[in-house]
Amino acid sequence: MANPVLTFRPEGIYCPAGDFYIDPWRHVDRALITHAHADHARSGMGHYMCTDIAAPVMRHRLGEISIDTITYGQTRTIGGATVSFHPAGHVPGSAQIRVEVAGEIWVVSGDYKLEDDGLSTAFEPVTCHHFITESTFGLPVFRWQPQRDVARELNAWWQSCAAQGKTAMLGAYSLGKAQRLMTMLGDHGPILTHGAVEGTNAVLRAQGIALPDTVQVTQDINIKEYPGALVIAPPSALNATWARKFGPRETGFASGWMALRGIRRRRAGDRGFVVSDHADWSGLLRAITETDAENIYVTHGYTEIFARYLAENGWQAQIVQTEFGEAEDTEEAA
After folding, report:
1. Going by DSSP bridges, is the β-strand pair 81-87/75-78 parallel, antiparallel, or unpaired?
2. What is the pLDDT of residue 2?
3. Is the CATH code 3.20.20.30 the one for domain 147-273?
């Protein structure tokens, strides 16, 4: 392609016409950000742009930054490019970024899922010529159950733990997954949260995003005052000294990776709940089909297998090497 709308540089995905990068992993002057997870929103950029919903969490995580916000569907002209942000359904404020130059349209999807979780703005397909997609769960084995079915499993486990006098401890990433799980839980007892989770809760609540009541676990908390509680914490905290204060307990992990038996065993938890903020195999294929794009660029995940499948089924597919997924434990975030 003589003058592509987007190119792939060592710093990240670059738009020459607008002189900006999308989710860069090295320092650049102008960065358009799909969402606030650490592998897509990194520190040290000169100026950021993201959705108005994502901006408060960006500031919470990155501190004082130069940031411009945009609402879903709003268009901006940056140099010779027209850009707009569209719902990705991944976490609150997550977006696909549409870039148009001289009638040619590219979409950078970031991370996305198609099931409406009731918390994030639901995914909307964006018609384009070129689509850059993740493939975190780009294998046929990954097929998610409806959220309502997983919610029943979660609540039954929590009630079972409470009946046995145990604390149910659930490992989930602090942005997106933790809040989604809260909305899936019934009123079976108090919900306690790790500080990392509660910090994000506070930011989202301040934006008017409705979340159930939670109590932050502090150093001087009296666990006996919260019988039958469920605790939500980053997975790394469940096997740390921090967790011992809860006495008899069962641990569960909520992740798409729980679909793989080997990872469930390695986690050594009592329960694994298959729930992900990424698209499964069917979701990836549906999203790609609905874009009407002929050219697909496959990033982080099962790139070789997924790109080969796409090529065998009529798409122009190629693998693009990125650093997404390397800034955090993807088993925790997925």
Report:
1. antiparallel
2. 56
3. no
